[in-house]
Amino acid sequence: MYHLNKLPVALAVAASLASFSSFAETETNNAAQIEELTKRIQELETKVQETDYVYDQQPAVLTPDFEPPQGLIFSGYARYGLHYADSDAAYVEVGSSGRSVGRLGNEYNGGEVQFAYAKKADNGAVWDIVAMFDQWGNRAWSSKGGVNLKKMYAGVTNVFESQPELYMWAGRDFHQRPQQGLNDYFWMTHDGQGGGFNNLNLGGIKLDMGLVGQVDSETGALGNDNGKYAVTSKLHGIDLGIGNLDLYANYGFASKQAGEDLEDEKAWQVGAVLGLGSSNKLVLKYADGADDSVFDLSGDKKVIYASIEGGVNPNSNLFVDYLASFKKLSGENVKMPWETENTERSEYSAIVRPMYNWDEVHSTWLEAGYAMEDHVSGFEKKGWKVTVSQNVSLGGLPWSRPMLRFYVTAGDVKATEAEKVDTLSAGAMFEAWW
Question: The whole model's pTM is what?
Answer without folding.
Answer: 0.84
